[in-house]
Write a structure and sequence with these properties.
mainly alpha, IpaD-like, 179 residues, single chain
């Protein structure tokens, strides 16, 4: 006998919350990749590096530094659920919108910061944006997590009988015991 989850996977049914899971887990890949790309760009000939008290600062052309945000494109994968997935359309639309915001907010902040952007590292890891954008990105991640929880609760409710139906079923069982 197959476990219910294994049976669902075997039958090809997908989780109703899969697109939201994707964008909640995506930072496990995007954050380290963005930091690695930023460090590589900051140490390249495109940037001017100067020593600070606790590390270094690089002044880089904004467009060059924007390339370091490319791993954030992973946040757009939920759009594929709109085309090919079996997840509910509403979930895929919300996940795509959140993924788009999580990619575009840091990119827009960086591109509007001027012709050059400074990147510091030492006490904190290297990242291509100022701390306020990191806070905004974390806030968007929290919103993604909240959306996942809300959609998971909704999906759980729709697949379970209502409280009234459960009570009615228990009442019928109890009544049949006394007949």
């Amino acid at each position: 006998m197959l476990h219910p989850m294994a049976k669902r996977l075997r039958d090809g049914r997908k989780s109703a919350t899969a697109p939201l899971w994707w964008i909640v887990v995506a930072p496990l890949v995007t954050v380290p990749a963005t930091q690695a790309w930023t460090a590589g760009i900051a140490q390249s000939d495109a940037c001017t590096v100067s020593r600070d008290f606790i590390g270094e600062t690089a002044l880089c052309p904004t467009e060059t530094l924007a390339v370091a945000l490319a791993p954030g494109l992973i946040n757009l994968v939920p759009a594929l659920w709109l085309l090919f997935g079996r997840a509910p359309r509403k979930t895929a639309v919300v996940a795509t919108a959140l993924g788009l915001a999580r990619f575009l907010v840091p990119l827009a902040a960086l591109l509007t910061s001027g012709p050059d952007a400074s990147v510091s590292w030492g006490f904190f890891p290297v990242y291509p944006n100022e701390p306020s954008i990191l806070v905004a990105s974390f806030g968007l991640w929290l919103i993604s997590l909240l959306a996942l929880v809300l959609f998971a609760r909704e999906a759980g409710r729709s697949s379970r009988p209502s409280i009234k139906a459960r009570i009615a079923g228990l009442a019928r069982q109890w009544q049949s015991m006394w007949e």
